Amino acid sequence: MLFIEDIWPILYLERFSPKNKLFSESLLQSITDSMSNTACKSSELEVCRDESAAFKLKLIAIASILLAGVAGIAIPLIGRHRKFLRTDGSLFVAAKAFAAGVILATGFVHMLSGGTDALTDPCLPKYPWSKFPFSGFFAMIAALITLLVDFVGTQYYERKQGLARGSCREEHGRVETLDADSENGIVAVVEGKEWNGEVFGEEEGGSMHIVGMHAHAAHHRHSHPQGQDGCNGLLRTLEHDHGHGHEHGFGGGDDGNGVRHVVVSQVLELGIVSHSVIIGLSLGVSESPCTIRPLIAALSFHQFFEGFALGGCISQAQFKMLSSTIMACFFALTTPAGIGIGTAIASFYNPYSPAALVIEGILDSLSAGILVYMALVDLIAADFLSKRMSCNFRLQVVSYFMLFLGAGLMASLAVWA
What we know:
single chain, mainly alpha
Protein backbone atom coordinates (compact mmCIF):
# COMPACT_ATOMS: atom_id res chain seq x y z
CA MET A 1 0.00 0.00 0.00
CA LEU A 2 2.92 2.34 0.70
CA PHE A 3 4.08 1.96 -2.91
CA ILE A 4 0.65 2.84 -4.26
CA GLU A 5 0.43 5.81 -1.94
CA ASP A 6 3.80 7.06 -3.20
CA ILE A 7 2.94 6.89 -6.94
CA TRP A 8 -0.69 8.02 -6.58
CA PRO A 9 0.20 11.74 -6.69
CA ILE A 10 2.16 11.08 -9.90
CA LEU A 11 -0.70 9.22 -11.58
CA TYR A 12 -3.36 11.62 -10.35
CA LEU A 13 -4.01 14.03 -13.19
CA GLU A 14 -6.10 16.52 -11.34
CA ARG A 15 -3.96 19.37 -12.62
CA PHE A 16 -4.94 18.42 -16.19
CA SER A 17 -8.63 18.00 -15.48
CA PRO A 18 -9.60 21.65 -16.05
CA LYS A 19 -7.95 21.61 -19.46
CA ASN A 20 -9.55 18.29 -20.36
CA LYS A 21 -12.92 19.57 -19.21
CA LEU A 22 -12.51 22.75 -21.20
CA PHE A 23 -11.47 20.79 -24.33
CA SER A 24 -14.44 18.41 -24.00
CA GLU A 25 -16.87 21.27 -23.57
CA SER A 26 -15.37 23.10 -26.55
CA LEU A 27 -15.59 20.01 -28.78
CA LEU A 28 -19.17 19.30 -27.72
CA GLN A 29 -20.17 22.90 -28.28
CA SER A 30 -18.57 22.90 -31.76
CA ILE A 31 -20.43 19.75 -32.80
CA THR A 32 -23.68 21.08 -31.35
CA ASP A 33 -23.28 24.37 -33.20
CA SER A 34 -22.43 22.59 -36.44
CA MET A 35 -25.57 20.45 -36.29
CA SER A 36 -27.95 23.09 -35.03
CA ASN A 37 -30.72 24.41 -37.23
CA THR A 38 -29.72 28.01 -36.75
CA ALA A 39 -30.60 30.00 -39.84
CA CYS A 40 -27.63 30.72 -42.05
CA LYS A 41 -29.12 32.27 -45.13
CA SER A 42 -27.00 32.98 -48.13
CA SER A 43 -27.46 35.90 -50.44
CA GLU A 44 -27.98 33.34 -53.20
CA LEU A 45 -31.40 32.57 -51.71
CA GLU A 46 -32.70 35.93 -52.86
CA VAL A 47 -31.09 35.87 -56.32
CA CYS A 48 -33.59 35.18 -59.11
CA ARG A 49 -36.21 34.01 -56.60
CA ASP A 50 -39.64 33.35 -58.11
CA GLU A 51 -41.71 30.67 -56.39
CA SER A 52 -44.45 30.40 -59.03
CA ALA A 53 -42.00 30.11 -61.94
CA ALA A 54 -39.89 27.67 -59.93
CA PHE A 55 -42.92 25.48 -59.24
CA LYS A 56 -43.76 25.25 -62.95
CA LEU A 57 -40.16 24.37 -63.76
CA LYS A 58 -40.20 21.66 -61.09
CA LEU A 59 -43.22 20.05 -62.76
CA ILE A 60 -41.38 20.17 -66.08
CA ALA A 61 -38.32 18.66 -64.37
CA ILE A 62 -40.34 15.78 -62.93
CA ALA A 63 -41.79 14.92 -66.34
CA SER A 64 -38.50 15.33 -68.21
CA ILE A 65 -36.37 13.34 -65.76
CA LEU A 66 -39.01 10.61 -65.48
CA LEU A 67 -39.17 10.17 -69.26
CA ALA A 68 -35.38 10.22 -69.57
CA GLY A 69 -34.98 7.59 -66.85
CA VAL A 70 -37.67 5.33 -68.30
CA ALA A 71 -36.21 5.59 -71.81
CA GLY A 72 -32.67 4.98 -70.62
CA ILE A 73 -33.39 1.87 -68.60
CA ALA A 74 -35.97 0.48 -71.06
CA ILE A 75 -33.69 0.47 -74.11
CA PRO A 76 -31.37 -2.33 -72.87
CA LEU A 77 -34.22 -4.33 -71.31
CA ILE A 78 -36.32 -4.26 -74.48
CA GLY A 79 -33.37 -4.26 -76.85
CA ARG A 80 -31.98 -7.57 -75.57
CA HIS A 81 -34.57 -9.23 -77.80
CA ARG A 82 -33.39 -7.20 -80.82
CA LYS A 83 -30.29 -8.10 -82.79
CA PHE A 84 -28.70 -4.64 -82.92
CA LEU A 85 -29.12 -4.00 -79.16
CA ARG A 86 -28.12 -7.40 -77.78
CA THR A 87 -26.03 -7.20 -74.61
CA ASP A 88 -23.18 -9.08 -76.29
CA GLY A 89 -23.15 -6.80 -79.33
CA SER A 90 -20.53 -4.16 -80.11
CA LEU A 91 -23.08 -1.34 -80.17
CA PHE A 92 -24.20 -2.14 -76.63
CA VAL A 93 -20.62 -2.36 -75.35
CA ALA A 94 -19.77 1.06 -76.84
CA ALA A 95 -22.94 2.67 -75.46
CA LYS A 96 -22.27 1.13 -72.05
CA ALA A 97 -18.75 2.62 -72.12
CA PHE A 98 -20.27 6.07 -72.72
CA ALA A 99 -22.66 5.54 -69.80
CA ALA A 100 -19.77 4.41 -67.57
CA GLY A 101 -17.96 7.66 -68.37
CA VAL A 102 -21.06 9.63 -67.41
CA ILE A 103 -21.30 7.82 -64.06
CA LEU A 104 -17.58 8.28 -63.37
CA ALA A 105 -17.78 12.02 -64.04
CA THR A 106 -20.90 12.25 -61.88
CA GLY A 107 -19.03 10.76 -58.94
CA PHE A 108 -15.81 12.76 -59.29
CA VAL A 109 -16.94 16.11 -60.69
CA HIS A 110 -20.47 16.56 -59.37
CA MET A 111 -21.03 14.52 -56.21
CA LEU A 112 -17.58 14.71 -54.62
CA SER A 113 -17.16 18.41 -55.34
CA GLY A 114 -20.69 19.05 -54.07
CA GLY A 115 -19.90 17.22 -50.85
CA THR A 116 -16.69 19.21 -50.43
CA ASP A 117 -18.49 22.52 -50.97
CA ALA A 118 -21.19 21.61 -48.45
CA LEU A 119 -18.78 20.45 -45.73
CA THR A 120 -16.52 23.50 -46.14
CA ASP A 121 -19.32 26.05 -46.36
CA PRO A 122 -18.76 29.28 -44.37
CA CYS A 123 -22.02 28.59 -42.52
CA LEU A 124 -20.31 25.68 -40.74
CA PRO A 125 -17.86 26.20 -37.88
CA LYS A 126 -14.23 25.96 -38.91
CA TYR A 127 -13.72 23.28 -36.28
CA PRO A 128 -13.94 20.41 -37.10
CA TRP A 129 -15.23 20.77 -40.67
CA SER A 130 -12.34 22.86 -42.04
CA LYS A 131 -9.63 20.92 -40.20
CA PHE A 132 -10.06 17.58 -41.97
CA PRO A 133 -11.00 16.55 -45.55
CA PHE A 134 -14.24 14.86 -44.56
CA SER A 135 -15.59 14.59 -48.12
CA GLY A 136 -12.68 12.47 -49.32
CA PHE A 137 -12.79 10.42 -46.12
CA PHE A 138 -16.48 9.59 -46.49
CA ALA A 139 -16.01 8.78 -50.19
CA MET A 140 -13.18 6.38 -49.29
CA ILE A 141 -15.31 4.70 -46.61
CA ALA A 142 -18.19 4.30 -49.08
CA ALA A 143 -15.89 2.76 -51.71
CA LEU A 144 -14.48 0.27 -49.20
CA ILE A 145 -17.94 -0.66 -47.92
CA THR A 146 -19.10 -1.12 -51.52
CA LEU A 147 -16.14 -3.42 -52.12
CA LEU A 148 -17.13 -5.45 -49.05
CA VAL A 149 -20.77 -5.66 -50.15
CA ASP A 150 -19.63 -6.57 -53.67
CA PHE A 151 -17.43 -9.38 -52.32
CA VAL A 152 -19.95 -10.75 -49.82
CA GLY A 153 -22.77 -10.62 -52.38
CA THR A 154 -20.68 -12.45 -54.98
CA GLN A 155 -19.71 -15.14 -52.47
CA TYR A 156 -23.33 -15.57 -51.39
CA TYR A 157 -24.70 -15.94 -54.91
CA GLU A 158 -21.86 -18.23 -55.99
CA ARG A 159 -22.49 -20.57 -53.07
CA LYS A 160 -26.24 -20.43 -53.60
CA GLN A 161 -25.85 -21.15 -57.30
CA GLY A 162 -23.26 -23.86 -56.63
CA LEU A 163 -25.51 -25.69 -54.18
CA ALA A 164 -28.47 -25.53 -56.54
CA ARG A 165 -26.36 -26.67 -59.50
CA GLY A 166 -24.83 -29.51 -57.48
CA SER A 167 -28.26 -30.70 -56.34
CA CYS A 168 -29.57 -30.66 -59.91
CA ARG A 169 -26.54 -32.52 -61.24
CA GLU A 170 -26.82 -35.16 -58.52
CA GLU A 171 -30.51 -35.71 -59.22
CA HIS A 172 -29.91 -35.73 -62.98
CA GLY A 173 -27.11 -38.27 -62.58
CA ARG A 174 -29.29 -40.58 -60.52
CA VAL A 175 -32.08 -40.47 -63.10
CA GLU A 176 -29.69 -41.21 -65.98
CA THR A 177 -28.12 -44.12 -64.10
CA LEU A 178 -31.48 -45.68 -63.26
CA ASP A 179 -32.68 -45.27 -66.85
CA ALA A 180 -29.54 -46.88 -68.26
CA ASP A 181 -29.69 -49.78 -65.83
CA SER A 182 -33.36 -50.35 -66.60
CA GLU A 183 -32.70 -50.47 -70.33
CA ASN A 184 -29.90 -53.03 -69.87
CA GLY A 185 -31.98 -55.15 -67.53
CA ILE A 186 -29.72 -54.44 -64.59
CA VAL A 187 -31.17 -53.73 -61.19
CA ALA A 188 -28.93 -52.08 -58.61
CA VAL A 189 -29.03 -53.91 -55.30
CA VAL A 190 -27.04 -52.76 -52.27
CA GLU A 191 -26.71 -55.27 -49.46
CA GLY A 192 -25.06 -54.77 -46.15
CA LYS A 193 -22.54 -52.17 -47.34
CA GLU A 194 -22.89 -48.48 -47.01
CA TRP A 195 -21.50 -46.00 -49.50
CA ASN A 196 -18.16 -44.71 -48.25
CA GLY A 197 -18.47 -41.28 -49.86
CA GLU A 198 -15.88 -41.93 -52.61
CA VAL A 199 -16.64 -41.11 -56.21
CA PHE A 200 -15.75 -43.24 -59.20
CA GLY A 201 -12.04 -43.00 -59.97
CA GLU A 202 -11.09 -41.82 -56.48
CA GLU A 203 -8.39 -43.85 -54.79
CA GLU A 204 -7.62 -44.20 -51.12
CA GLY A 205 -6.04 -41.11 -49.62
CA GLY A 206 -8.20 -38.76 -51.68
CA SER A 207 -6.22 -38.83 -54.96
CA MET A 208 -8.04 -39.09 -58.26
CA HIS A 209 -7.48 -41.78 -60.85
CA ILE A 210 -5.03 -40.80 -63.59
CA VAL A 211 -7.73 -41.09 -66.27
CA GLY A 212 -9.81 -38.49 -64.48
CA MET A 213 -6.81 -36.16 -64.22
CA HIS A 214 -6.14 -36.39 -67.97
CA ALA A 215 -9.78 -35.74 -68.73
CA HIS A 216 -9.83 -32.70 -66.45
CA ALA A 217 -6.63 -31.34 -68.00
CA ALA A 218 -8.03 -31.74 -71.49
CA HIS A 219 -11.24 -30.01 -70.45
CA HIS A 220 -9.26 -27.18 -68.85
CA ARG A 221 -7.22 -26.64 -72.02
CA HIS A 222 -10.41 -26.62 -74.06
CA SER A 223 -12.16 -24.18 -71.72
CA HIS A 224 -9.29 -21.67 -71.61
CA PRO A 225 -7.82 -21.20 -75.08
CA GLN A 226 -4.82 -18.94 -75.41
CA GLY A 227 -3.71 -16.27 -77.89
CA GLN A 228 -5.27 -16.02 -81.32
CA ASP A 229 -6.97 -19.38 -80.92
CA GLY A 230 -8.80 -17.95 -77.92
CA CYS A 231 -10.03 -14.99 -79.95
CA ASN A 232 -11.13 -17.28 -82.79
CA GLY A 233 -12.92 -19.51 -80.31
CA LEU A 234 -14.68 -16.55 -78.78
CA LEU A 235 -15.78 -15.35 -82.23
CA ARG A 236 -17.16 -18.78 -83.11
CA THR A 237 -19.01 -18.91 -79.78
CA LEU A 238 -20.63 -15.51 -80.36
CA GLU A 239 -21.63 -16.48 -83.90
CA HIS A 240 -23.12 -19.72 -82.59
CA ASP A 241 -25.13 -17.83 -79.96
CA HIS A 242 -26.43 -15.38 -82.55
CA GLY A 243 -27.35 -18.13 -84.95
CA HIS A 244 -29.36 -20.06 -82.39
CA GLY A 245 -30.95 -17.08 -80.69
CA HIS A 246 -29.55 -17.91 -77.27
CA GLU A 247 -28.81 -15.11 -74.87
CA HIS A 248 -26.43 -15.90 -72.05
CA GLY A 249 -25.20 -12.44 -71.21
CA PHE A 250 -21.73 -11.17 -71.88
CA GLY A 251 -19.40 -14.09 -71.97
CA GLY A 252 -21.39 -16.85 -73.51
CA GLY A 253 -23.31 -18.09 -70.55
CA ASP A 254 -20.55 -18.29 -67.98
CA ASP A 255 -22.08 -18.93 -64.57
CA GLY A 256 -19.45 -16.76 -62.89
CA ASN A 257 -20.33 -13.83 -65.12
CA GLY A 258 -24.01 -14.37 -64.36
CA VAL A 259 -23.36 -14.11 -60.64
CA ARG A 260 -21.27 -10.97 -61.11
CA HIS A 261 -23.99 -9.31 -63.18
CA VAL A 262 -26.56 -10.05 -60.46
CA VAL A 263 -24.40 -8.45 -57.77
CA VAL A 264 -23.27 -5.53 -59.94
CA SER A 265 -26.82 -4.61 -60.95
CA GLN A 266 -28.04 -4.55 -57.35
CA VAL A 267 -25.07 -2.62 -55.93
CA LEU A 268 -25.17 -0.17 -58.85
CA GLU A 269 -28.87 0.48 -58.29
CA LEU A 270 -28.16 1.10 -54.60
CA GLY A 271 -25.53 3.72 -55.44
CA ILE A 272 -27.63 5.39 -58.12
CA VAL A 273 -30.77 5.52 -56.00
CA SER A 274 -28.89 6.99 -53.01
CA HIS A 275 -27.64 9.99 -54.95
CA SER A 276 -30.81 10.33 -57.04
CA VAL A 277 -32.72 11.16 -53.87
CA ILE A 278 -30.15 13.82 -52.99
CA ILE A 279 -30.17 15.57 -56.36
CA GLY A 280 -33.97 15.39 -56.46
CA LEU A 281 -34.22 17.06 -53.05
CA SER A 282 -31.67 19.70 -54.07
CA LEU A 283 -33.72 20.66 -57.11
CA GLY A 284 -37.03 20.47 -55.24
CA VAL A 285 -36.09 22.86 -52.43
CA SER A 286 -34.72 25.49 -54.80
CA GLU A 287 -36.96 28.49 -55.49
CA SER A 288 -34.65 29.98 -58.12
CA PRO A 289 -35.58 29.44 -61.79
CA CYS A 290 -32.02 30.41 -62.70
CA THR A 291 -30.82 27.35 -60.79
CA ILE A 292 -33.54 24.94 -61.91
CA ARG A 293 -33.36 25.54 -65.68
CA PRO A 294 -29.83 24.18 -66.26
CA LEU A 295 -30.48 21.37 -63.77
CA ILE A 296 -33.37 20.06 -65.88
CA ALA A 297 -31.15 19.48 -68.92
CA ALA A 298 -28.21 18.19 -66.89
CA LEU A 299 -30.24 15.75 -64.79
CA SER A 300 -32.22 14.47 -67.79
CA PHE A 301 -28.98 13.73 -69.65
CA HIS A 302 -27.46 12.16 -66.56
CA GLN A 303 -30.56 10.10 -65.76
CA PHE A 304 -30.83 8.70 -69.28
CA PHE A 305 -27.31 7.28 -69.40
CA GLU A 306 -27.34 6.11 -65.80
CA GLY A 307 -30.52 4.25 -66.67
CA PHE A 308 -28.86 2.78 -69.74
CA ALA A 309 -25.93 1.46 -67.70
CA LEU A 310 -28.20 0.05 -65.01
CA GLY A 311 -30.58 -1.45 -67.58
CA GLY A 312 -27.65 -3.13 -69.30
CA CYS A 313 -26.52 -4.71 -66.03
CA ILE A 314 -30.06 -5.87 -65.25
CA SER A 315 -30.37 -7.32 -68.74
CA GLN A 316 -27.07 -9.18 -68.43
CA ALA A 317 -28.10 -10.54 -65.02
CA GLN A 318 -31.16 -12.12 -66.68
CA PHE A 319 -33.59 -11.40 -63.88
CA LYS A 320 -37.18 -12.49 -64.17
CA MET A 321 -39.56 -10.03 -65.77
CA LEU A 322 -41.15 -9.01 -62.46
CA SER A 323 -37.78 -8.35 -60.78
CA SER A 324 -36.50 -6.38 -63.78
CA THR A 325 -39.66 -4.26 -63.85
CA ILE A 326 -39.48 -3.50 -60.12
CA MET A 327 -35.81 -2.45 -60.35
CA ALA A 328 -36.51 -0.31 -63.41
CA CYS A 329 -39.48 1.45 -61.81
CA PHE A 330 -37.58 2.01 -58.58
CA PHE A 331 -34.78 3.72 -60.49
CA ALA A 332 -37.06 5.80 -62.72
CA LEU A 333 -39.23 7.10 -59.87
CA THR A 334 -36.53 7.95 -57.32
CA THR A 335 -35.40 11.34 -58.64
CA PRO A 336 -38.93 12.61 -59.43
CA ALA A 337 -39.99 11.49 -55.94
CA GLY A 338 -37.06 13.42 -54.47
CA ILE A 339 -38.14 16.53 -56.41
CA GLY A 340 -41.67 16.13 -55.10
CA ILE A 341 -40.49 15.80 -51.49
CA GLY A 342 -38.21 18.79 -51.92
CA THR A 343 -41.06 20.87 -53.33
CA ALA A 344 -43.29 19.94 -50.38
CA ILE A 345 -40.75 21.02 -47.75
CA ALA A 346 -39.35 24.03 -49.64
CA SER A 347 -41.46 26.51 -47.66
CA PHE A 348 -39.76 25.75 -44.33
CA TYR A 349 -36.54 24.01 -45.36
CA ASN A 350 -33.34 26.04 -45.30
CA PRO A 351 -30.66 24.32 -47.43
CA TYR A 352 -28.03 26.63 -45.95
CA SER A 353 -28.60 25.63 -42.33
CA PRO A 354 -25.61 23.84 -40.74
CA ALA A 355 -27.57 20.61 -40.23
CA ALA A 356 -28.71 20.53 -43.87
CA LEU A 357 -25.19 21.25 -45.12
CA VAL A 358 -23.64 18.49 -43.02
CA ILE A 359 -26.23 15.90 -44.08
CA GLU A 360 -26.01 16.91 -47.74
CA GLY A 361 -22.22 16.89 -47.70
CA ILE A 362 -21.96 13.46 -46.10
CA LEU A 363 -24.54 11.90 -48.43
CA ASP A 364 -22.94 13.48 -51.51
CA SER A 365 -19.53 12.14 -50.48
CA LEU A 366 -20.86 8.65 -49.79
CA SER A 367 -22.63 8.61 -53.16
CA ALA A 368 -19.44 9.74 -54.88
CA GLY A 369 -17.48 6.84 -53.39
CA ILE A 370 -20.10 4.31 -54.47
CA LEU A 371 -20.38 5.69 -58.02
CA VAL A 372 -16.61 5.93 -58.56
CA TYR A 373 -16.11 2.35 -57.36
CA MET A 374 -18.92 0.99 -59.50
CA ALA A 375 -17.82 2.90 -62.60
CA LEU A 376 -14.16 1.89 -62.38
CA VAL A 377 -14.42 -1.67 -61.07
CA ASP A 378 -17.73 -3.13 -62.19
CA LEU A 379 -18.37 -1.24 -65.43
CA ILE A 380 -15.09 -0.06 -66.97
CA ALA A 381 -12.65 -2.74 -65.77
CA ALA A 382 -15.15 -5.56 -66.29
CA ASP A 383 -15.63 -4.68 -69.98
CA PHE A 384 -12.29 -3.15 -70.94
CA LEU A 385 -10.20 -6.01 -69.51
CA SER A 386 -12.37 -8.73 -71.03
CA LYS A 387 -11.26 -11.05 -73.82
CA ARG A 388 -14.02 -9.69 -76.02
CA MET A 389 -12.38 -6.26 -75.88
CA SER A 390 -8.79 -7.50 -76.28
CA CYS A 391 -9.71 -9.49 -79.40
CA ASN A 392 -11.37 -6.58 -81.24
CA PHE A 393 -9.15 -3.58 -81.94
CA ARG A 394 -11.94 -1.57 -83.55
CA LEU A 395 -14.14 -2.13 -80.50
CA GLN A 396 -11.27 -0.98 -78.26
CA VAL A 397 -10.89 2.31 -80.14
CA VAL A 398 -14.63 3.01 -80.23
CA SER A 399 -15.15 2.07 -76.57
CA TYR A 400 -12.30 4.24 -75.29
CA PHE A 401 -13.53 7.14 -77.40
CA MET A 402 -17.06 6.74 -76.02
CA LEU A 403 -15.73 6.44 -72.46
CA PHE A 404 -13.79 9.70 -72.67
CA LEU A 405 -16.63 11.40 -74.53
CA GLY A 406 -19.20 10.47 -71.87
CA ALA A 407 -16.91 11.54 -69.03
CA GLY A 408 -16.02 14.79 -70.79
CA LEU A 409 -19.59 15.77 -71.61
CA MET A 410 -20.86 15.03 -68.11
CA ALA A 411 -17.94 16.90 -66.55
CA SER A 412 -18.56 19.91 -68.78
CA LEU A 413 -22.12 20.18 -67.48
CA ALA A 414 -20.64 21.28 -64.14
CA VAL A 415 -20.12 24.70 -65.74
CA TRP A 416 -23.90 25.26 -65.79
CA ALA A 417 -25.20 22.86 -63.12
